[in-house]
Model the fold of this input.
Amino acid sequence: MDFWKHTLGSPTKIVAPMVDASELPWRLLSRQYGAQLCYTPMLHSALFSRDLKYRTEALASCDEDKPLIVQLCGNEPQTMLEAALLAQDHCLAIDINLGCPQAIAKRGHYGAFLQDEWPLLSEMVSLLSKNLKIPVTCKVRRFETKEKTIEYAKLLENAGCSILTVHGRTREQKGPLTGLADWTYVKSVSDAVNIPVFSNGNVQNIQDLERCLEETGAVGVMTAEGNLYNPAIFMGQNPPIWEPALKYLDLVKKYPCPNSYIRGHLFKLFHHVLSLPENNNLRIELGAANTLDQFTNITNKIRSMYELYHTGDKVWEAPVEPESHNLLLPPWLCQPYVRDTPEGHIKKVEDKVKEAEKRLSEGTKRFYEDAEGNPISRKKMKKIRRISRRPEKPENCSPKSMEKCSLCENPLGSKCGYQLCKKCCRDKCFIENLDCEGHRILVKTRREMAKKHANQKNKGKSAIASNSELTEVKCDS
Done:
């Protein structure tokens, strides 16, 4: 508890470690909007240990970026220790990721896919806590039962964990099956251990945070998605989306980061605006953007489109259809992204399967829809996909000239000086000894070259004949 109080400064508003999302500029932006503690993105311990470039980029920080905790993942205790020793001078604690449920963690056998290997985890946490000069913390997901979750938490506490972050979802709760986090599991762990507990999950506004602190007994609340869609979540504000976007882009100018990170943040900030059908081209433009100037221009476009609505100089008429656009707040304000429930997702999947089976029985192989859910042909779908891949190319290109040759029914060459098709142009040039640059027919030029070559050849033969006659005269003499 002393570490949480005195070293970290008793933080309650915490930004979670997020791959490709909790980089330095975003952490600084979050701190400007009230975040009291930030984590680095999850860093792979083996890569961190051996790759200097990866390590240097991962540890990018500044004086304003404090307090900071570095999060590592891996399954080899010694490799984790080597990485932690290299990172310990750049942060206040090392966090071990035992909660990532994604496919990449399953392939690499780390994160939440280590939660059943208790001897390994006990060795790993113990090794780091005994050999580092800074504390070790852990981030975990709950098990199916409270009893096993509590036993798991005590194991980590006894091994040397100083702060435990408990995500109120199981390893299987992810993607469209995410559902709600169960805070009662966090409460059970908080009551059972003697170390500070952070709660993670279900925090989309400041009211959620306050309620979570009260109901779980946790000393701090960590948020990921809530922060990405509204970085001002800890201040209880919903600013217009262009304000945090422009602040973030200014920070990126000072502390550069990959374009993929910038694009990802802007897509989340602008999610509700870009979901409107009339802004489909803007969404495509953001997907193709790859320079800071382009990102800034798109942000300013959105600002110019909605600023008058925000100031009240224009009246906003909220769309009712489709349901996802029927927001409590207007779309230009930062606000959470509300997922469909797992039950709702499963029902939608089942309905699509039934629709596909019905169409299959009617003889239709595949079913295509546009962005608004209207049925379209396969040909139309291919055109939509082609345009989305090349948004910079005009949708309606001017067709080639279909004027006819003056001598026949074939289309004339677009650059032919005689207004003929290629066949008629070739005949004309042959008969009248002409060239056509448009069709690259060079009859006249080639004939002149042939004559020149023939003349040179004849002159050579004459010179040889003259030399032979002269030789014969000398011999006679």
Q: What stands out?
A: The chain is about 50% helix and 10% strand. The longest strand covers residues 161-167.
